[in-house]
Amino acid sequence: MEKLPKDKKIILFDGVCNLCDSAVQLIIKHDKKDMFRFVALQSDLGQRVIKHLGIDTQKTDSIILYQPGFAYFYKSEAALEITKDLGGIFYFVSLFSILPVSFNNSIYDYIARNRYKWYGKKDNCMIPTPELQDKFLV
What we know:
By secondary structure, this protein is α+β, with helices and mostly antiparallel strands.
């Protein structure tokens, strides 16, 4: 994983999920400190990162936040860590981190299980515009 930027936080996301795509677009829009880079879970790099971290794909299939050389988070913990870094109004969402992880994950899992039914699914991973290409790792 030597090619991953050490000074950025890597968000691995479901590249065919419309909800996940909207979340990535929201994060990009509010990432004023340019902290995040993105990798689709379905990509070769996404699969290599998952293997490197030793993550059981049975435990998560929609979001992982990886801070190279530091830690990784998945499910609700990943979402809450991301909101902390975005700041502003998103800080209030991060207050859910005071609740038990099991409670937050049960809500997260319910949404994740239904995300394709509620928001739809693409046939292919999103292709970033030329302006956003630097934010996506391949």
